[in-house]
From TrEMBL:
Its EC number is 2.7.13.3. It is an enzyme of class 2 (transferase). Keywords: Kinase, Membrane, Phosphoprotein, Transferase, Transmembrane, Transmembrane helix, Two-component regulatory system. It comes from Kribbella caucasensis. GO terms for molecular function: phosphorelay sensor kinase activity. Its main location: membrane. This is histidine kinase. Residues 41-259 form the Histidine kinase domain. The chain holds residues 199 to 459 of 459 of the full protein. It is found in: Cell membrane. It catalyses: ATP + protein L-histidine = ADP + protein N-phospho-L-histidine. GO terms for cellular component: plasma membrane. The keyword Cell cycle does not apply.
């Protein structure tokens, strides 16, 4: 069977699953208002890219003549599908991390070279830059700093901060990652020239589901910073929003170094 059929079936299964969850959650009382809102947000966040993938795949399966216009269209359409699937995968990964955290999971820790984590996050983040410039990371001050932790989780935390920096920075803005060792800690600062966080939101943005007044039309669920903070805590570290006079934000991730680092 064709890719179109497969996507069609996936969309149907998905919609049925979400509809059932919605019914289940609707019966929750008012104290679970946030949970209900969360489900509605997740549902929207996952449905929108899936619907786009479906219609693109439908169109692609109908293109069969090998003409040049079609070839150009095809590569653009496939890039869109790739971006949408990446987004859905990221969101599902975030939901899994939270579910595991709630079930009391801890992170397995082994020596990780932080410069490699930053490199990996930088390479992934390059694709999110829509009219916003990501400057090459300045990580010389890290040298071979080692933390005890889980490389995938650490990369996830840095990516969440980078993703936010992009989301809340209108073009033509800049995003910069700066990392160095300070005392017995590694410190990774992600700075943007964007909207900044209003003072009344500063204490709430790390809460699950909380979306700031500045979030506007930016897509999201309010889960990112909660997950990033959980990852930092699991490593004995912290994430802090630094006071930034003027425009933009700096989020600072600090992690204890190992003896060797
Ligand atoms: P989401 O981005 O999905 O809303 P997060 O938990 O990642 O969820 O962030 C929570 C809120 O913090 C956002 O809704 C936004 O208001 C604010 N925020 C996060 N990062 C930034 C940033 N770099 N600049 C301005 N505001 C930010």
């Amino acid at each position: 069977h064709s890719a179109g059929d497969e996507v069609g079936r996936l969309v149907e299964t998905f919609n049925e699953m979400l509809a059932e969850l919605e019914i289940a959650y609707q019966s929750l009382d008012d104290s679970n208002q946030r949970l209900r809102q969360f489900l509605a947000d997740c549902s929207h966040e996952l449905r929108a890219p899936l619907a786009r993938i479906r219609s693109t795949v439908d169109v692609l399966t109908r293109l069969d003549e090998p003409n040049t216009d079609d070839a150009a269209f095809r590569s653009r359409a496939l890039a869109d599908v790739a971006a949408d699937t990446d987004r859905m995968a990221r969101m599902v990964r975030q939901l899994l991390i939270l579910a595991r955290a709630d079930a009391g999971a801890t992170i397995e820790r082994r020596p990780v070279r932080l410069a490699d984590v930053i490199d990996a996050a930088y390479r992934q983040a390059g694709r999110m830059a829509n009219g916003v410039t990501l400057r090459p990371p300045d990580a010389d001050g890290l040298a071979d700093a080692i933390v005890l932790g889980d490389a995938d989780h650490l990369e996830q935390a840095v990516l969440i901060l980078l993703d936010n920096a992009f989301k809340y920075t209108p073009p033509p803005g800049q995003v910069l990652v700066r990392a160095r060792c300070e005392d017995s800690q590694a410190r990774i600062d992600i700075t943007d020239t964007g909207l900044g966080v209003p003072p009344e939101d500063r204490n709430k943005i790390f809460d699950r589901f909380y979306r700031g007044r500045n979030a506007g039309a930016a897509t999201g669920t309010g889960l990112g910073l909660a997950i990033a903070a959980w990852i930092a805590t699991q490593h004995g570290g912290t994430i802090e929003l630094l006071n930034t006079p003027g425009d933009g934000s700096t989020f600072s991730l600090r992690l204890p170094l190992t003896e060797a680092g």
